[in-house]
Sequence to fold (90 residues):
Amino acid sequence: MLKRTKIDPGGSRRMCVLWMMLALLLIAVSGPGLFGQADTGAIAGTVTDATGAVIPGATVTAISTDNGLKLSGVSNGTGEFTILAVPRQL
Fold:
């Protein structure tokens, strides 16, 4: 005698929903990393004198020897400076 098995009519639908949820989860997790690429960087540091004392208000300039581009920053009260939006090939 053959045994009859019931076919679950909603089974394939549940699998489809499960795969869709998994795909959405993977997109949500990997999405922010896709936009993390940038073509600029930054230069940061601390300006000090020969004795190691910090120098506030010092102007720091990065100059490209290829094209003469100059980018500057000024050190703060603790001697720290940051030059933002430095092209990849300064």
User: Anything to note?
Assistant: The first helix runs from residue 11 to 34. The beta strands are 40-46, 59-63, 70-74, 80-87.
